[in-house]
Design goal:
- The structure holds 2 protein chains of 2 kinds.
- By secondary structure, chain A is of the alpha/beta class.
- Chain A is built from 11 helices and 9 strands.
- Chain A has helices at 13-30, 55-66, 87-96, 111-118, 134-147, 166-177, 206-209, 234-241, 245-250, 271-274, 281-300, and strands spanning 44-49, 70-75, 101-106, 122-128, 155-159, 181-185, 201-203, 215-218, 256-258.
- The relative contact order of chain A is 0.16.
- The relative contact order of chain B is 0.20.
- Chain B has helices at residues 12-29, 45-60, 113-123, 168-171; strands at residues 7-10, 36-41, 67-70, 101-109, 130-138, 150-154, 161-166, 175-180.
- In chain B, helix 1 (12-29) packs across helix 2 (45-60).
- In chain B, the strands form 2 sheets. A 5-stranded parallel sheet of chain B has the order 3-2-4-5-6. Chain B has a 3-stranded antiparallel sheet with strand order 1-8-7.
- Classes of the chains: A alpha/beta, B alpha/beta.
- The interface between A and B is medium-sized, with 34 and 29 residues.
Chain lengths: 317, 186
């Protein structure tokens, strides 16, 4: 494994398989009475979140705690960042306090990469701007794998606000890397022209795509990132691109519905659709903990705590 | 390349007879099988545990003794000291171990660190009445105060030698062999 997890593009399909296989074992840990193992005792994981997040931060926090690592949550409000401290100084401060891994979410694309150039600690990208959200893509793959024996030839649609979605980019890269077919679906204003280079097909008609899907992945309409008017009205968007009950009927029997959350019920997904058995949205959340445990274990389990001089022990079987 | 080939310590017949004897010893010590559960340490310990369960059932009759598989990776004391994080296997203990006599089963007993990790892992699953240890080979060189209750064979070794247990389930044959480590162990 690499020292950092910055994007899906740095991973091979072999890496991804290893991450998912290891996550299977951690899912078993999550089903025990005592959901905790001592694998990362003595390591410190810092959650450095420059953007709001509930599920990703809590998921990383639980993952680290179930591995017995110490966790520090650093949010930018009410901290030195609010006093004007730069990302670099914040990171160097956290590192000076002994952080072994920094989980970062930032509104600027590329912030995790820049951070990884400054610090010795491992950096995990928990979402950067409109660039990538690799851990979300990996937990999505894990969830898909629970329902389908192989990724090869799997038909996945990622539908909605592709333009502003880091989830779309990471998932698209991940699925195609594993041999699946991706179709990006959305209004022309919300599917960026450069998406042609992601190895995916592009469609502007959700209804055309539905009948041959294995996975229908709905994206949240990210109004907070939309500085312009990308569609006339929420109502029109819901009518043209929302996953309604009747659209679900057009899906094959075996197809599953996914959403990275938080959902806008009634916009990109109808409320009753989100609660159908084939909507595996809460499974995605549960699996997120196991996948993040797997990543933290594979990244932090590979090297000693800094300054550790137990090199002689390395030879031992 | 070293010219020394593998030395056979136990052949298939001896492996089979060791398993049978250990099964009898477990029954004798625990006055039957009613309280006993077997937990094998992955990999190979779980195969041995299933064989022991088969022998115990053959001797005592049904019901079969519960068998679980334990992966100790997350409990190792050398995580972070290696270039790669150790590979993870499956853990499956689909029964309650509280109040039971748990027989931990492993192929080779060496430093004792695996068994230390296994005991830490076990107590996260419940509070056994007792934990006993069965191994096919005890090769010495303990680094922790751990001793086996049931041993297939005691084998004197040098620390740099390698003892490999091969089982039909994973390796296509039953045998215990000693390998000389070649050149530099790194």
């Amino acid at each position: 494994m690499n020292k950092h997890l910055l994007s899906i593009s740095q991973l091979t399909s072999g890496d991804i398989t290893r991450i998912l296989d290891t996550a299977e074992s951690f899912r078993e840990v999550g089903s025990r009475v005592i959901k905790k193992v001592p694998a990362l005792r003595g390591r410190t994981v810092v959650n450095l979140f420059y953007e709001n997040s509930t599920r990703t931060r809590i998921s990383f926090e639980l993952a680290a705690k179930r591995l017995s690592a110490d966790v520090i949550n650093f949010s930018t409000t009410g901290s030195s960042v609010a006093k004007g401290e730069s990302l670099k100084d914040t990171a160097l401060t956290l590192e000076a306090m002994g952080a072994d891994a920094i989980v970062i979410r930032h509104s600027s694309s590329g912030a995790p990469y820049t951070l990884s150039q400054w610090v010795d600690a491992s950096v995990l990208n928990a979402g950067d701007g409109t660039h990538e959200h690799p851990t979300q893509a990996l937990l999505d793959l894990f969830t898909i794998r629970e329902h389908f024996p192989a990724f090869d030839g799997l038909n996945v649609a990622i539908a909605g606000d592709v333009r502003h979605s880091r989830v779309a980019r990471s998932l698209c890269l991940a699925v195609t890397k594993m041999g699946g077919n991706v179709t990006l679906v959305g209004p022309p204003t919300l599917v960026p022209p450069e998406a042609v280079g992601w190895g995916a097909a592009i469609s502007h008609e959700l209804d055309d795509v539905l009948p041959k899907l294995d996975v229908c992945y709905m994206l949240r309409v990210q109004r907070e990132r939309q500085r312009l008017q990308f569609f006339p009205s929420v109502r029109e968007y819901a009518r043209l691109y929302g996953l309604s009950r009747s659209r679900v009927e057009a899906l094959p029997e075996h197809a599953i519905v996914m959403h990275p959350g938080p959902m806008n019920r009634g916009v990109e997904i109808a409320s009753d659709v989100a609660d159908l058995p084939r909507a595996v949205i809460t499974d995605q959340v549960t699996n997120g903990i196991a996948v993040r445990m797997s990543l933290l274990y594979l990244i932090l389990g590979a090297e000693g705590p800094r300054g550790d001089a137990a090199e002689a022990e390395v030879q031992r079987a | 390349m070293s010219a020394v080939g593998p030395t056979f310590l136990l052949d298939a017949g001896e492996v089979r007879r060791s398993v049978t004897r250990i099964a009898h010893e477990i029954l004798e010590r625990n006055k039957g099988a009613s309280d006993v559960v077997l937990v094998g340490v992955a990999a190979r310990g779980d195969d041995l545990a299933r064989r022991l369960a088969g022998e115990i059932e053959r001797i005592e009759g049904p019901p079969a003794v519960p068998v679980g598989t334990l992966d100790i990776t997350f409990y190792r004391d050398d995580i972070g000291l290696r270039a790669e994080a150790p590979e993870v296997h499956e853990t499956q203990i689909p029964f309650d171990i509280s109040g039971r006599a748990v027989v931990l089963v492993d192929d080779v007993l060496f430093t004792g660190r695996t068994i230390r990790a296994a005991m830490d892992a076990l107590v996260d699953f419940g509070r056994p009445r007792s934990i006993q240890l069965a191994v096919l080979v005890d090769r010495g060189h303990r680094e922790l105060p751990i001793r086996p209750d049931y041993v297939g064979k005691n084998v004197p070794t040098r620390p740099d030698e390698e003892v490999a247990v091969r089982l039909v389930e994973t390796d296509g044959e039953d045998a215990v062999v000693m390998l000389q480590r070649e050149g530099n162990p790194a």
